[in-house]
Amino acid sequence: MSDLPQEPRPPQLTVMTVNIHKGFTTFNRKFILPELRDAIRKVGADVVFMQEVLGTHEDHSRRIAEWPEAPPYEFLADEIWPQHAYGRNMVYPKGHHGNAVMSKFPIVHYQNHDVSIAGPEKRGLLHCVLQVPGYEKQVHVICVHLGLAEAHRQQQLDLLCQITHTEMPADAPLIVAGDFNDWRRRANDILWTEAGLREIFVNAYGEPAKTFPAIFPVLALDRIYVRNCSVHLPVVLPRRPWAHLSDHAPLVAEIHL
User: Fold this and answer.
1) What is the pTM of this model?
2) What is the per-residue pLDDT across 55-113, written as a single tens digit (0 to 9) for each?
3) CB under 8 Å to 241, separation ≥6 — which residues?
4) Which of 23, 106, 232, 239 would disulfide-bridge 254, Cβ 3.0–4.6 Å?
């Protein structure tokens, strides 16, 4: 009797989200981008969502001996993540910063959405479309950094929900991750009701993960939401070394498509 053919296992990928604070320690006391790169590499994520990523900065490049020749997001991606996308949000005379996505899979398209509300805060949603080898559907990921003001976040969440309906098929796997600054925990109900997005820590453990400040987390500011895929073992990375590397504790999860 011959063995029955087995169904191919759906692809899985490890994702990580972290606010890197422009590659500096708290209060900008020390430049730590090389240490940060080493720590991110050790996680072994397939897709990394990053917020507060410097694109360029004239003063830092002249003053800091370790400043990379390539843009910081390219320096972070170097050889490990051959595909990367950067969305410039905040522009100032000396440079700019924004969100970035690093991927081991091809990024076939990306678009940065400016969701800034009137005022000095500049925020964005970086939408990337990934092609995972051996998987016929394209995977959509959105790197998020929302505002500090409640009224601004409400409008930005509405824009995020619109994107999830207008820029991807309804059945496409979707991963939304980043710094939501949602200390009042209002986003979960909105994103579930309006976009069908589930927060993975709430789904697994009953509440979102506390991530800020990383040295002693009390606020659940960072999130990972999914649609049309499942999640295995979401974790908050430990204080060592991360409390030294970022004021936000990173989140990691295994996503099954």
Assistant:
1) 0.93
2) 777 667 777 777 778 888 899 998 899 999 998 887 666 777 789 999 999 999 999 99
3) 35, 39
4) 232
Distance CA 6, CA 108 (A): 31
Alpha-carbon dihedral 61, 78, 121, 177, rounded to 10 degrees: -160
Q: Helix 187-195 vs helix 150-166: angle between axes, to the nearest 10 degrees?
A: 20
> Up-side HSE of residue 33: CA atoms within 13 Å toward CB?
25
Instruction: Report DSSP state, residue 238.
Output: P
Banded model confidence at residue 6, pLDDT cuts 50, 70, 90:
low
CATH number at residue 67: 3.60.10.10
In a domain, 7, yes or no: no
Q: Taking the CB of residue 188, how many other CB atoms lie within 10 A of it? A: 21
How many structural domains comprise the chain? 1
State both tokens at 249.
Answer: 């504790």
The reply to whether 70 falls in a domain is yes
111 inside domain: yes
Structure tokens, 41: 């590499």
Q: What pLDDT digit, counting tens, does each position of 215-255 carry?
A: 999 999 999 999 999 999 899 999 989 998 999 999 999 99
